[in-house]
Amino acid sequence: MKLSHKKQGYGYTVTTREFIIQKPHANYYLQLADILSIIPAEPYGLKPLRHLPEWPEHAGLVSVAPGSRHYRIMVRRAVLHNRSGMRTIASCDFILPLDERMFRAVVNWSGLDPIGGGSAEDHGGG
């Protein structure tokens, strides 16, 4: 484990291999190698963190936390672990509030390069 952050109803953990999104009754496991991109996102109009099962193979998550900087994390696949068991979700986006330390940890450990070159710190964490 490299970094963990818990906040009212959700949490994040970054290890050397995965980014884990934790909710009270569901966890999402994203392999860092499966992260395609992370871009800033506008949270306005989004609903609270939830799974969207009506899109079976293109599920997504959205979240709103006032005052937080939000990012859209696009992944090739994710693993959902809930009371019903585990299942793989293909090609999905997560829109999440991430503080600067968590953002930097995900970017650094996933090996992503900021557009325009330089490090995540050069881009103000986003």
Structural overview:
By secondary structure, the protein is mostly beta strands. The protein has one helix spanning 100-110, and strands spanning 3-7, 10-14, 18-22, 26-31, 35-41, 50-51, 60-62, 70-82, 85-97. Strands 1, 2, 3, 4, 5, 6, 7, 8 and 9 form a nine-stranded mixed β-sheet that branches. A hairpin with an 8-residue loop joins strand 6 and strand 7. The longest helix has 11 residues, at 100-110. It is globular, with a radius of gyration of 14 Å.
The number of helical segments is 1
Order of helices and strands: EEEEEEEEEH
Report Rg. Answer: 14 Å
Largest sheet: 9 strands, mixed
Shape: globular
Could you estimate the helical fraction of the residues in percent?
Answer: under 10%
C-alpha termini separation: 23 Å
Give the total of beta strands. 9
Query: Which percent range describes the beta-strand content?
Result: over 45%
Mean pLDDT level: 78
The low-confidence runs, each spanning 5 or more residues with pLDDT under 50, are: 49-58, 117-126
Structural class: mainly beta
List its traits:
9 strands, mainly beta, 9-stranded mixed β-sheet, globular, disordered C terminus, 126 residues
Give a brief outline of the structure.
The chain is built from 1 helix and 9 strands, in the order E-E-E-E-E-E-E-E-E-H.
